[in-house]
Amino acid sequence: MTSYPIHPGHRHPPGINIDETGCNFSIFSRYATCAELLLYKDCHSEQPFQVIRLDPELNHTFFTWHVLVEDLPLGTHYTWRIDGPKDTPKTGRYFDPRQELLDPWARAICNKLWERKYATTANLQLHRSMRAVLVADTYDWEGDKPLQIPTEQMVIYELHIGNFTKHPSANVKQPGTFSGLIEKIPYLASLGITHVELMPVMAFDAQDVPAGVSELGLSNVWGYSTHSFFALHPKYCSKTTAKFHRNEFRNMVKALHQAGIGVILDVVFNHTAEGGTGGPLINFKGFGNETFYHLDAKDKRYYRDYTGCGNTINANHPFVTRFILDCLEYWVREMHVDGFRFDLASAMTRGENGDPLPNPPVLWGIELSDELANTKIIAEAWDAAGLYQVGSFPGYRWLEWNGRYRDCIRRFVRGDPGLVGEVATRIAGSSDLYKSNWRLPSNSINFITCHDGFTLWDLVSYNTKHNLANGEENQDGSNDNFSWNCGVEGETTNNKIIALRYRQVKNFITILLLSQGVPMLLAGDEVLRSQRGNNNTWCQDNYLNWIDWSDLKAQAGMVRFVRSMIALRRRHPNLQRRNFLQGTNPNNKLFPDMQWHGERLNLPPWNDPNAQCLAFTLGSIAKDDTPLHCLLNMSNNFRCFELPPLNDLFWHRSVDTSLDSPYDISLVSEQFMVQTAHYWLAAHSIVILEAF
C-alpha cells in the first residue's frame, strides 16, 4: 500500500482528530522515550502497511506524542508501540516496545486477531493486538436530544443488550444487538418504564475469565471488564465493520427517545480488563501504568485491588480525572445518553494513596460539569474492599443504589419480624440516609433485584445459591440473599407453594412501586425469569441468562400486574414526591401527606419486636390525585385492619396481592367498593385502597 505523508501534528485533542489537513494522532505517555504508530489496512492484516517512528524533537510536546498523516482513508486500523525506562519495582513503569497498544481514546475497535493469553510479556504474539479504527463522526440526529425527565418520575429497567434478545423466541432480525433492542421498544413502552439502564456496552474483554471458568467454554458475558471507554463492544453491533457501530447505537438511542425512554449506561471506571501483575498489556499499562492504576507503594510491580478484579483505576490523578470526564461528556454530547450508573463507585473516591477522600476531584468534576448538568448520575456506593457509602457518597446530585432498601424489604417480605420501623423509613424515601445532608428521596434508587444476585422468581424459590455451573465450586456470588423458598428448594409442582411464590413476587413489586425514591426493575422479573438458583450468572451466555419471550404469554397475568402497578405509580403524584414526607397537612386536605398505622389506626407497632404488619395513608398533593391507604401483612395469618373514615367518599380496592389475576389489580373503573370500616387481609399480602 501507499505510504502517506506525515507532519509533526499537535498534542490536542488526545486520540485522533480528522480535518481537512489529515488525521492527527495524539497519545499521552509521561515517561516514554520513543513512540511508533503502526497503520493497518484492516482487522485481518498480518503486517502494518506503514510504521511511523516519531521524532522526539518534532513529534513530542510535554507528555504527549503526536503526528499528522495526510489522506489516510477511513477504516484504517492503527496501534501504538511505546518504549521508555524500566525498573518497574521502583517506578511502576511497564514499557514493552514489542507490544502493540490500543489507543485509550479509540472511537471504534477491532479485536478479531486478539487473544488474551498472547497479550502478556511472557507470551507475546506480534501484530495480533487489538486495533483502533478511523471512523467518521457524521450522523443525522433529526433534532434528538437527551431527555430531561424529572428524577422523581423515573422508573428504571435494567437490561443486558445481549441477553435481552438472544433467545430464539425474541424473534428479532439481529439478536443480541442494539438493533435487536430497537425491535423490542414497543414492549418497553407498554410497561411504562421511563429509562433503560444498559449493562456495560463499552468495549470489554469477553476472554477475561479464570481458568476454571474458561475450561467450561464460558466467557465474560456481563461486560464488567472494560478496556476501551470511548468505543462500543463490537458484538453488540449487527454490522461487522466498525465504521457502522456508533450509528447503530445512535439509532437505538434515537428510537428509545422517540418512545419517551431515556438511556442510562452502566460504566466501569473502577478497574480495567488489564488485571493485575501478569495480566495482559492492552493500553493503559503500556502508556502510563504508574498514572492510570493504584500501585503498591513498596513494590510497584503489584496493584492495589479494591475491586476484586486485579487492579483499581487511579481515578483522582489529575490526568485520569480528565480522561473520565472527557469520556462521559463524549457519550452525552456525541451519543445522546441520558445518564450513567457507576459500578463500584466507591473505588473512585480513593486518593492516590488508596484512602477515601472526603471530596474526590473526579466525583465533584462529574457533579459540576456543565455538559453533564442534566445527566442522571447513579453510584453503586461501595467497593470490593469493604468501603460502604450508601447515604454518605460524596456530592449532592448523585443517586445511589440503596442496598439497605433492598436488604430491609427482602427480609420484611420473607416474614422477618420487628422490622416495621425501618420498612417505614425505606418506603418513605430513606430520610435517615439522605435528609440530614440536604438530599432528596430521589437520591435513593430503590431495588429488590438487579443483575447481581437472584432474579425475583429465584428470590422466592431458593434459600441458597446454586452456582456450580460457573466452574468456581459454588464459591462465587453472595451468600447473603435474604431469600425464602416458600417451603421447597427450587422447582415444585405443589400448587400452594407456587401460589405463595406468585403472591410474594407481587408483594415485592407493590412495595417497590409504592416507595418514595426511584424504583428499578430487573429485566425479565415481570415474566418470572429463573436462573435456577444461580445468583452470579456473569459468565453464562446461554438460556440461563436469556429472556424467554414465550413467557410473555405464559406469565401474562404477572406482566399485567407489573404494567398496572407502574401505571398506578405514574398516575399518583403522591408516590413521586420531590421532598420528604412530613406528616403534616398544611393545605387542610382530607389527610396529611403521611399517616402511619398498624392493624389499628394511628398505632404503628414501632416497638413491637414481633410486628409483621404495617399500614399507611398517603394524602393527595394534586387536584386530580386521590388519597391512598396501604395495608401490608407479612405474617402467616389473616389480619383485620381498621380503615380511616371518609366523609362523602368510599375506599375502593385497587390492589390485593392475595387474589388471582385479573382481580389482583383493577382499573379505576372496575375497582371494588369497600363499605366496611375494616379489611381482613390474607397472610403474606398487600392491599392498596383509593379514595373517591
The oligomeric state of the chains shown is single chain
Helix content: 10-25%
What about the largest sheet? 8 strands, parallel, barrel
How are the strands of the largest sheet arranged? 11-12-15-16-17-18-19-20
| Annotated CATH topology of the domain at 6-133 | Immunoglobulin-like
- Shape descriptor: elongated
Strand content range = 15-25%
Question: Count of DSSP helices?
Answer: 16
Set down the secondary structure blueprint:
Blueprint (H helix, E strand, L loop, with lengths): L5 E2 L7 E5 L2 E7 L5 E7 L9 E4 L6 E2 L2 E6 L7 E7 L4 H4 L17 E2 L20 E3 L22 E4 L1 H5 L12 H6 L1 H7 L3 E4 L3 E3 L6 H4 L11 E7 L12 H14 L3 E6 L16 H9 L25 H16 L5 E4 L18 H8 L7 E4 L19 E3 L1 H12 L5 H8 L3 H4 L9 E4 L8 H4 L35 H20 L3 E5 L28 H4 L1 H16 L22 E4 L15 E6 L9 E6 L5 E4 L8 E6 L15 E3 L3 E4 L3 E7 L1
Parallel strand pairs: 11-12, 11-20, 12-15, 15-16, 16-17, 17-18, 18-19, 19-20
Antiparallel strand pairs: 1-7, 2-3, 3-7, 4-5, 4-8, 6-7, 8-10, 9-10, 13-14, 21-22, 22-23, 23-28, 24-27, 25-26, 25-28
Helix pairs in contact: 8-9, 10-11, 10-14, 14-16
